[in-house]
Amino acid sequence: MKKTVTVLVVIFLYLFIFSCDKTTETDTEAPTVSITYPANNSEFVQGTIITITADANDNKGIKEVKFYIDGTFTSTDENEPYQYEWDTGTTKNTSHTIYAEAYDTSNNTATSDVITLTITGGGTGTVTDIDGNVYQTIQIGDQEWMMENLKVTHYRNGDPIPEVTDNGTWAGLTTGAYCNYNNDAGNGTIYGHLYNWYAVDDSRGIAPEGWHVPTDDGWKELEMYLGMTQAEADDTGLRGTDEGGKLKETGTTHWNSPNTGATNESCFSALPGGYRYSDNGNFYLISKYADFWSSSEYYSTYAWYRLLYYNSSVVLRYHYPKRFGLSVRCARD
């Protein structure tokens, strides 16, 4: 009998100790982490704000993700999506490395693969219009673009471009004119002026000397440099995937939320100046739409334009009546 009791006690103690070991088992499983944006070997222009994004997972939970640029710790994020906004500032013509470290709730760690990217020279200078307005410019592929919307009030030869505030007068125009959104000069200061296509097409020239309003093909060249295929660029309506986001200014200072997909990787810094309607002269959708004329006619009363949206990252290509008031960007000849 004593022998049986002793055996039972030993079994009980074994089970008790084994059970305690199970409940206090140490978590040794490491998390996983990867950089999901930007892609390896990406290229950005000087001044871009790059939203570095990481994906991290663990069986017990992620405590934090740390970001490193060129081997130097830069930031910690404890909440999904794990991100760090890197303002590249004046950095240019340099290569950089990025990686992330994930820590789980047991302090197990993992390190992502290293991502390499390049910051190119970016801005190439300035251009001044006949009124003395100075515009920052940016090299995008083989083109040099203004980084700001046009604000000029005179043609290149010095003749004034009429400012038309009356709605009915605007709706009946067949000659060049400009206005400010809601006839508010403050909007013109921020978003530039709105011009009808007759001003764009005027032989006296609306662009600074040595510059022009891009043709429809000029816009296509920009879009294809940013990632569109030729077939997408040639299409009408909504086209591409993220090319519009690469053109839009980031944040919601000027764009309405959510400003979908805005990275401004191109440094084009598109602003949503809205438009003036051709039939009644009313103003619509400032902070939501960025409309830009091309210099290409569609047919006698229509011309090609581009449109970027606050809630999309694609680019619309279509044609408006020439009496519409849209923003204008210029490119170097």
Task: Walk me through the structure.
The protein is of the alpha+beta class. It folds into two domains: 89 residues, Immunoglobulins (Immunoglobulin-like), CATH 2.60.40.10; 210 residues, no CATH class. It has seven helices and 22 strands. The strands form seven sheets. Strands 2, 4, 5, 7, 8 and 9 form a six-stranded mixed β-sheet that branches. Strands 16-21-20-19 form a four-stranded antiparallel β-sheet. Strands 1-3-6 form a three-stranded antiparallel β-sheet, with no helix packed on it. A hairpin with a 6-residue loop joins strand 17 and strand 18. The longest helix has 22 residues. The chain is elongated. The mean pLDDT is 91.
User: Helical region count?
Assistant: 7
Name the structural class.
Answer: alpha+beta
- Largest β-sheet summary: 6 strands, mixed
Helix and strand element order: HEEEEEEEEEEEEHEHEHEHHEHEEEEEE
The overall strand count is: 22
Number of domains: 2
Distance between the termini: 106 Å
Unreliable sequence segments? none
Query: Percentage of helical residues?
Result: 10-25%
Shape: elongated
Rounded mean pLDDT score: 91
Name the beta content range.
35-45%
The radius of gyration over CA amounts to 29 Å
